[in-house]
Amino acid sequence: MENNETKKEKYGLxxxxxxxxxxxxxxxxxxxxxxxxxxxxxxxxxxxxxxxLQDNDWLIVSSVNPEIEHGDIIISTQPNAFNEPLVKRVxxxxxxxxxxxxxKGEVYVDGQLLDEPYIAEPTHTTEGVSFPILVPEGxxxxxxxxxxxxxxxxxxxxGCVDERYVLGVVKYRVAPDFTKID
Length: 182
Hints:
By secondary structure, the chain is of the alpha+beta class. It has a domain at 68-167: Umud Fragment, subunit A (Ribbon). It has 1 helix and 12 strands, in the order αββββββββββββ. Strands 1, 2, 3, 4, 9, 10, 11 and 12 form an 8-stranded antiparallel beta sheet that branches. Strands 7-6-5-8 form a 4-stranded antiparallel beta sheet, with no helix packed on it. Strand 5 (97-101) and strand 6 form a beta hairpin. The protein is elongated and about 90 Å long. The N and C termini lie far apart (70 Å).
């Protein structure tokens, strides 16, 4: 027969194990919700966003109510010819008209020349889409900052990105250094 002291030790150990497992499961659920619905870490693969983002940079992407605006950098999971997510900058949203003067390397949205201090060089590379182009509602026209080394909405292999495939908006670069992305 067990004495009361042995029973207290046994139940104390069971309670301790239950508490530890409960804390671990709660933390796991919280982290899963956090990284599924609120933020994500995404790595950059390639040089299409240079000089803003470099190959192997790590990004924090916000998935919460992504109100996508001109100039935002997004992650798109829309199926494409490359079979990989794309990291690109939003140039225009649904209902806007994009035109590119490839001779001058200038990009226009709704007739207005874009001020693009973030690009590596002027836009001279065509990708197969005829301009001007009216961006369909619910879609985004996206381009890489390294315009002449980027496959983006100028290419029929990518096209305009359906907003439903936007994983989120890039907020910070965390590696190799911590930088807020505007």
